[in-house]
Amino acid sequence: MLAFLLMSRSSLRHARLFRFLTLAVLVLAGAASAGCDSLYYKTMKRFGLEKRDILVKRVREAREAQQKGKEEFRSALDRFKEVVATEGGTLEEKYDELNRELDRSEDRARDIHDKVKSVKDVADDLFKEWQKELGQYQDRALRAESERELGETRRRAKAVIAAMEKAEQRIDPVLQPLRDRVLFLKHNLNASAIGALDKELLTLRGNVDRLVADLESSIAEAEAFITQMDAEASPTS
């Protein structure tokens, strides 16, 4: 009986802990989505994460989103061509498959957009706070050193964000023609419409190649930023 009671109390404690952690996650998600940045940052600080740490974390997440997007966009046109070239199957089936492929690409595009925006948001908040706190120094040498570090970190962050935005701007010229053609197919399910798509895909290859190149450049810039920020945060021996 005693063992049963002890197990019950242990289970209750675990259940309460689970509810607390779940609530914490919901609060963080709600705060971030609602734009309650101050609450979000305060909560994250309790877990030992400052804005600088959050910036590195979000750059890493944006890099991963761009990597996944690069793989998706690079293969999207090939899969479109495969569907168009495959004999057999109804026109409705081909339209459905093309539409699903477009949806996957759209999802990747939205994820990249959201991740890049999150990087810009936390970078802006970090540098505003850092600039404001420079006025709190009494020691001129320390203030000068902090100001130098602020300028260097801001320069690196601007380079990362610029690379991400450049790549992001390449996405729509790839997706918009596909959106138009899939929408056209929705109301014109005939062989000539499918054939027109095949010809148009050839002209989009250059746009895809430029997009992939810019994504790779952005990913490399993000990796350099993360490496440098991690090195600065590591204790020196």
Number of helices: 6
Overall number of domains: 1
N-to-C terminal Cα separation, in Å?
56 Å
- How large a portion of the residues is in β-strands, by DSSP E? under 5%
Task: Extract low-pLDDT stretches.
Answer: 2-7, 30-34
Order of H and E elements = HHHHHH
- The general outline is elongated
Largest sheet: none
- Classification by helices and strands: mainly alpha
Mean pLDDT: 81
CATH class term: Mainly Alpha
Report the C-alpha radius of gyration, rounded: 25 Å
Q: Which percent bin holds the helix content?
A: over 70%
The CATH topology name reads Four Helix Bundle (Hemerythrin (Met), subunit A)
Number of strands: 0
Under the CATH scheme, the architecture is Up-down Bundle
Can you walk me through this structure?
By secondary structure, the chain is mainly alpha-helical. It has one domain (43-233): Four Helix Bundle (Hemerythrin (Met), subunit A) (Up-down Bundle). Helices cover 89% and strands 0% of the residues. The protein has helices spanning 2-34, 37-46, 51-85, 91-133, 140-187, 191-233. Helix 3 packs antiparallel against helix 4, helix 4 (91-133) packs antiparallel against helix 5 and helix 5 (140-187) runs antiparallel to helix 6 (191-233). The longest helix is centred in the last third of the chain and has 48 residues, at 140-187. The termini are far apart. Mean pLDDT is 81; it is low at 2-7 and 30-34.
